Amino acid sequence: MAAADQEPHVSAVRPRSYQDESYQHGFLGTVGDLQNEGAFQDVVLEVEGRRYPCHRLVLSAASPYFRAMFTSDMAESRQKTVVLQGLDAGMFDEILSYIYSGTLHVSQDRVQPLYQAADLLQLDYVKETCSSYMAMNVERTTCAELYKFADVFSVDIVQKRCLQWIARHFTEVASSEEFYIMSVAQLTNIISHDELDVKEEITVWEAVVRWVQHSREDRLHHLPSILPHIRFNLLTSDDTAAILEHPLVRNDPGSSEVIRNVVQKWNLNLKPRLGMTTEMAILYCGSRKLLFINPQEGKYISCRYSREDMSKFSAMTVTSDNDIYILDTEELDDDENQLSLFKYNHAKNVWELAGVSTISHGPIHEFSHCQELLFEVDRNLYYLAVDREIDRPLLQMRKYNQNTKQWQDCTSLQLNETLCSCATLSCGSYIYFLTNSAVYCYDSSQDRWSERTPPYIEVCTAVVMGTEIFCTDCEFTQTLVYDTESDNWQELQGWPNPNPESLDDDSLPILFVVENQLHILLICDSDYQEGIVHLMYVYDRSTDAWRELKATMPNKRYFAPGSFSPVARMYLPYLKGT
Question: Which of 102, 207, 265, 466 has its Cα between 20 and 30 A from that of 535?
């Protein structure tokens, strides 16, 4: 065919959509101008006698309340003037300003009636903004009032924030006038909170007594329903006897019966209050022994567990709910091993099977030199296994599926370098794997690994504090902090009195965070006369300096069950009692 006879080539042009942002922003401004000019207004809203000419279309677009009103068979859809009941005119001024401008003005003295108006008119953005504002402004003078308001209107974010504040300042709040006028439901909600900052449970009982006596005739009949929320398992026998002899209880057979039933059932699942517990780092020293330490308070408690509790300990984690889990290796008859998950029973100071399916080593454990780790990320448990001995190290991971009650494979991480040392830890919704020359970040929501800026030291141990990762080398001569949000490294001061030759060859530095302070434990070479020497330092961020603490620890070598020592809140009577 001649060239002139060929059909011309036509490229396929795909349609595209364009968005005019200036139009979107300008449209609302134009609508506001029309409102100010009084143009095209087709309805008048009346609130507390004040009249507001408006546009049905604008009101319907902004609020489902008005859309239903003007598009249904309601009488208001045909009326020129619509009277709105249950609204404050001052608040409606602000609401109308928001509808026509998109700008909302919120203040402490207006936020509650503004929320009420938005709730009636179904303006979700206004409600959410007011909720956030109230939650950010919970303090001593506003807490009780905001808590009652949030309870009535079911504003969860504000209710939780108020409960947290009241719990942390319970002694102060329980002596205030605002506490005495709370409802019985609000009272029981407060005294049921795990995070009450009280040293003794008798403090809770004393607060209940003051609340009842503030209006005794009206409230005494509520006492039997309140008493089960007091944790009698945390009271001494003398305290319980004194409560039974208290006039409020002694003269009320119903209350006495409730207390005796509660004491008889003795619910050990009721946790100690936050103020009764102590943050303790947990160290492993072999032979089924754990050491719980808080060097700031000089507390060191050693516990040994039975072979049934702790056979071959391999990993540990502490969850956001203060649950402690360990992985324990079980040897099977066919030379196969599987990992069982044990959960710590605080009240009995024993380890019990967690009721979670076992982890079969299988393909995840083909290597013999495997470091095993356990983490909680977004309330899910993750099991990690990494081999540092092969030419191309492999990190494999499994996640416990709460729905299927089984462990499922996650994306593995194949490395192109031989690992001299590494550290693995969780921070927020991510897991970080640090090597000599790289940082890998696992996004749990995407099941995906990505690379971040590498460190410039040989990372030996690391720990998370907030959104930062602190790490050091094996000789504690170089210390770095990594900001996970900015992906930046910063060098900190290392060991103030470096003497690497004195460090024990079989032990690594141990980092942990107790009471929001960074600590490091160094184990030095043992001397026949003096035994093992432990050096403990705490880091002061403001001066970038390490300060030595006197550590009166038992004469043993200790190891972190992972890249750092996990920390849990412990009720010391439970530890000491066993």
Answer: 466
